[in-house]
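User: My notes are a mess, but here's the protein and nicotinamide-adenine-dinucleotide's SMILES. Can you give me a structure?
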Amino acid sequence: MHVLITGAAGMLGRKLSAAIARGGLPATRLTLADQLDPPAPAGIPVRKIVVPLTDRQAPQLLLADRPAVIFHLAAVVSAEAEAEFEKGYAVNLDATRALLDAIRRMSGYAPRLVFASSLAVFGPPFPDLVPDEFAPNPASSYGIQKLMAEALVNDHSRRGHLDGISLRLPTLCIRPGAANRAASGFFSAILREPLAGHPANLPVAESFRHYFASPRSAVDALLRAARLDTAALGQNRALVLPGLSATVHDLLEALRDRQGARALALISRNPDPAITAIVESWPGAYAATRARALGFTAETRASQLIDAYLEEDAPFLRR
Ligand SMILES: NC(=O)c1ccc[n+]([C@@H]2O[C@H](COP(=O)([O-])OP(=O)(O)OC[C@H]3O[C@@H](n4cnc5c(N)ncnc54)[C@H](O)[C@@H]3O)[C@@H](O)[C@H]2O)c1
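Assistant: No problem, the inputs look usable. Here's the predicted complex:
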């Protein structure tokens, strides 16, 4: 099986390619595409394609060897898509449309396509627990772009051009390495930085509730989606993934349990109205009924987010 990953140099793309190389899918080769040079995991033949997805030639280059499974992860993330309107639409919508359309034009080809969507497709006002059938009404350009891309995945799937599934990922926490330009980046930073003995900034109130999963859970979900019998999905190919509903306070308590009060002392509180406005437009809890019934899972305690990070990304910090 030939597998293509777009956004392969990103946080999730790297973890996904490594998991596939470890046998997470019966893949015989990987094509890794990104505008940046993606790292190649050992143990599997890898072809890298370093090209902006907005390049007119990109879809043909990526699809030349007819990958059986495509993970479409490349994206301009939330805060950047809000700051740079044209760039967000060019990558998150136009390049996605060009990729799907190029698949459509290839006869006798209908790959499995797993699209990394986001819970930013939903907008306020929210019930306390958001059911699967809650009407999406995004409150950010990023959310609008993800929702439009989901609609394209649904339509191309309905017409048999591809066999698509969109995963509405929770906020991934703890994100390893440097922060990207996602508005939600501080959730990871307030755990990751103190775990390493570094200071961190908290821009929202401690009572703020949000919905999380570890990057490891997200990779498991992507792999499950690649193998799923999509007949169970019907016309709506978008799934809200299970996640952990937790407040900032819950995260900080888990950090205290792990590292003691001195870790909490590294966090300074500087409320940021811009960040608060974006993250307040996202709900704190989802039912994720359909995905749970299909076997998707995630963490159930804040401490598990920390454990997943220490096991996978920072074993040198384990004690
Ligand atoms: N991390 C999260 O919390 C989260 C939550 C919900 C959804 N998602 C979605 O999951 C996917 C992966 O997220 P991530 O955290 O790995 O993001 P990331 O920013 O680490 O990776 C995105 C990758 O896309 C690449 N990219 C961006 N524009 C490109 C272009 N024009 N051409 C080619 N490559 C381009 C970047 O170079 C980067 O390597 C994204 O689609 C994101 O929207 C992530």
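The first strand starts at residue 2 and ends at 6.
User: Great, I'll file this with my notes.
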